[in-house]
Amino acid sequence: MNRLTWPGLAVCAAMLAAGCGRSSAPPGTEPPAERLLRVLNWEDYIDPALVEQFTERTGIPVDYQTFATQDELVGLIRSDPGRSDLVIVDESVIQTLIDLQLLRTMDASRLAGLRHLDPPGTTLPPDINPDYAAPYHFGCTLLAYRKDQAPEPPAAWEALWDERYRGRIMMPVDFQEVFAVTLLSLGHPMNSGDPRELEEARERILRQAPLVLEYTDATTIQEALNSGEAALGVLYNGDAARIAATNSQIGIVLPPEGVPLWVDCFCFPRDARNVEAALAFMDFLMEPDIAAQNAAFLHYATPNRAARALMSPALLEDPAVFPPAAIRARSSYYLKPDVARLRMYNSTAAEVRRLRGALGLGPGTADP
Fold it and tell me: CATH classification of 14-138+263-321 is 3.30.750.24, yes or no?
């Protein structure tokens, strides 16, 4: 996954994503529009068997579409608020989508599965708006590395500036995330708006730019680490835990300075046409045994406390999946950046592109 965008932070990628994704309906057998459930979710962010199981149980066919970055998602919703009935959205952009009148309310009284979820303010941020969103999974951003390419295990975010990894470091394409880990590496709050701290982070990002193999989406980072093309990368914890489970050369670090936290939520786009099916799908995924199966497949933490009672102790005790309290206490959720911070993100991304271009490394970042 690659999360975190704000309208105006990056050029919307809606046209690039048109027609992408996958559908559970066989080609040439389009179901009636009133029965079809159209879901838009991150790449590789559900156990595919559960989509098939939902259709078998309910008879509701699912057109399951995917996106790679939050830029792409916001672009899709803005260009056509009726293309999907249910979307998975990072909680940090929900209020922005509400302000843009791109989401519709959901009737929580019709979601029996909500009783299984942790209350806001425990494992979840307190400001998730229950009128518009319900949590799906939560997690953090951390460091993943190749044990066979590391002189010693990285100990902190500082490793991202280690010359020994030149040309083998993968960074997220979203510069709010780049700034977050850079600010943490400097001992500053990841949401800092202090001009001096932001300038210090900008200078450090520019010093790092020649060391970076690519600024890209999480799927590409995951693949590069898994194949050995990259030695070190900033990755979402579930993605890192999933490849570490099958590749003994993948190591994971929760930097002691703290990590960015996030929650992905179910939301209804403004012009959703099959809200009934969307509610049924949400309730299905909140059933404890279903939620436990999905969390085990994804290696992401579930807010479903009833599901956690059914999960293996190994998964529940994996710090990469459920970060320990000491790390969480030093960590933060993303806050909506003000105009000055957005300008800093955009101008720094442009500087990185120019610098990498001058060095013959390619732009390496998306257009702001």
Answer: no
